[in-house]
Design brief:
Layout: E1 2-4, E2 18-19, E3 25-27, H1 35-43, E4 48-50, H2 60-68, H3 76-100, H4 105-119, H5 125-132, H6 138-156, H7 161-172, H8 183-186, H9 194-201, H10 203-215, H11 221-227, H12 248-262, H13 274-284, H14 291-301, E5 309-312, E6 317-322, E7 332-335, E8 338-341, E9 350-354
Antiparallel strand pairs: 1-4, 2-3, 5-6, 5-9, 6-7, 7-8
Helix pairs in contact: 3-4, 3-6, 6-7, 6-12, 7-11, 10-11, 11-12, 12-13, 13-14
GO molecular function: hydrolase activity
Pfam family, one: HD_5
InterPro entries: HD/PDEase_dom, HD_GYP_dom, HDIG_dom
Length: 355
């Protein structure tokens, strides 16, 4: 039975091997497909597969609508305006908080929920970041990105949809304490003095205070603002707590906070390549960040690089067609008729990833 990939449902069994357009083996005959397997076929741009006859018809049509969004960024005309509205609204919220000292809860729900409704249909997080990340309004974009990535990572870790939405809200508000920091210090292009850095670190305490006053004991919010710069080895701030003393949701936000910050252009820092940053997170997962949370993030992000363009430091541009099962950060790239396995040919280095 030959079927389009967007019509597959969990439990379908492949009756033949699945190969992508480059002849690379993706899934084996007999594989009982689950959500991640179907996503993998889509990421390899495989349109049709052969499956064994189904025992029951299932509900393929509703699932097809969900899976279709990963085939191409048709959602961009819808999501981009919502994203821009969210950035603009967060700027207003930030300024209101600066002036009034508290947050309007309704303002957050009105902006964040429509954005989340669309993010819930899109699993290609790398495309979202590439398309929506710009050099403008870092402070506000960063908060939106951390909210978005917190939602995805919480979902990948097995939190319920309701919990993931609340964790997204915590990510959205994690830096709200910066509204009490002098903008001249926050946007200083040069190195901060010791006194300036000590003041910036207080944004975690300020955020905790603002959220407690605005939301009371609403789950995850205040503690995430307080602890998102704490590290499992005790090297973080504001209190230098370690390990299990750091709230699990604060650990989630720590990972995506670093990722968003490093892939973004800032007044004092050039953005880094998205694969390079994942490699840096992997290194930190053995020192400062929770290893399970960090490596779950990496595991789910890596397949989204398949099909993306990669510019090498040599100036050559190719397409990522396969990620390495062990050396995640050095994929197989096709340039014209030539294939370069970066895991083998170590002299090649990726400079930038784009659509």
């Amino acid at each position: 039975m030959r079927i389009h990939v967007t019509e597959l449902i969990d439990g379908d069994r492949l009756s033949g091997d699945a190969f992508n357009d480059y002849g690379l083996h993706v899934l084996s005959k007999g594989t009982v497909l689950q959500h991640d397997d179907i996503a993998k076929l889509l990421q390899h741009k495989i349109e049709f597969v052969d499956i064994e006859q189904r025992q029951s018809p299932g509900k393929s049509k509703s699932q097809a609508r969900t899976l279709e969004s990963t085939v191409s960024p048709k959602w961009l005309p819808i999501v981009q305006p919502l994203y821009e509205i969210a950035v603009s609204s967060f700027k207003d919220l930030y300024k209101n908080t600066m002036n009034e000292g508290i947050i309007d809860p309704d303002q957050i729900s009105d902006v964040l929920q429509p954005l989340l409704n669309n993010f819930q249909l899109e699993r290609d997080v790398v495309s979202l970041l590439l398309l929506l990340n710009t050099e403008d309004d870092y402070t506000y974009q960063h908060s939106i990105q951390v909210g978005m990535l917190s939602y995805y990572l919480a979902s990948w870790l097995g939190y319920s949809k309701e919990e993931a939405v609340q964790i997204s809200k915590a990510g959205y508000l994690h830096d709200i304490g910066k509204s009490r920091i002098d903008p001249a210090v926050l946007n200083k292009p040069g190195k901060l003095t010791e006194a300036e850095f000590e003041e910036v670190k207080k944004h975690t305490l300020y955020g905790y205070e603002i959220i407690k006053e605005s939301f009371g004991e609403e789950p995850y919010l205040a503690v995430s603002a307080l602890q998102h710069h704490e590290r499992i080895n005790g090297s973080g701030y504001p209190h230098g707590v370690r390990g299990e003393d750091i709230h699990p949701v604060a650990k989630i936000i720590s990972v995506v906070d670093i990722y968003s910050a490093m892939i973004s252009e800032r007044v004092y820092q050039k953005k880094r390549d998205m694969l390079f940053v994942l490699k840096e997170l992997y290194r930190l997962s053995f020192i400062e960040l929770d290893p399970h949370i960090t490596q779950t993030f990496i595991k789910h992000m890596i397949p989204n690089f398949i099909g993306k363009k990669a510019e090498l430091e040599s100036g050559e541009i190719g397409t990522i067609i396969m990620t390495h099962p062990i050396d995640f950060f050095r994929p197989l790239i096709q340039i014209g008729d030539r294939f370069i396995d970066l895991a083998v040919e170590r002299d090649y280095v990726i400079k930038e990833i784009y659509l």
